[in-house]
Specification:
Helix content is 35%, strand content 16%. It is α+β, with helices and mostly antiparallel strands.
Length: 149
């Protein structure tokens, strides 16, 4: 008499487990980087948008706002303080009210800790700090680990 065997052997289970482990080892880091890159656009869009507003403000007042080292008594300027992923600051340049460097610093609790992006009144963009494994750039905002912009 012949027996019909049904079910899965231990070797088949081990092969499936190994395949799932290999796929997971590739997919999880790629997904993590994808999520981080999505969060970085928060800093890029706010820095770019605020820079445009700063230039409009400068055209009207011939000085950047006090938030960026401009003269007191100028019209109010609402600047972003922080978002879920980044906090924003602005420092006066060599000539107060005439140049500045705006920064977005990543918030560790938001998953962007270690990143710092800057932009100046001349639209010079730089990535001054990144987490371990990423590459900085003095000429652009880095969006990938390899330093590409």
């Amino acid at each position: 008499m012949k027996r019909n065997q049904t079910g899965v052997t231990l070797i088949e289970l081990l092969i499936v487990a190994a395949l799932i482990g290999i796929l997971g080892a590739i997919a999880v880091p790629a997904y993590r980087d994808y999520v981080i890159r999505g969060k970085l656009t928060d800093a890029h869009s706010i820095l770019s948008g605020t820079r445009v507003r700063m230039e409009q403000y400068y055209q009207d007042n011939k000085s950047y706002p006090t938030w960026c080292g401009g003269a007191a008594g100028l019209a109010a300027f609402t600047a972003p303080a922080s978002t879920q992923y980044f906090s924003f600051t602005c420092a006066a340049g060599a000539t107060a009210g005439q140049n500045y460097t705006m920064s977005a610093t990543g918030i560790a609790g938001g998953g962007t800790g270690g990143f710092t992006y800057t932009i100046t009144e001349a639209n010079v963009r730089a990535t001054t700090a990144v987490p371990t494994g990423w590459t900085t750039s003095a000429t652009c905002w880095v969006i990938k680990k390899n330093g590409s912009c």
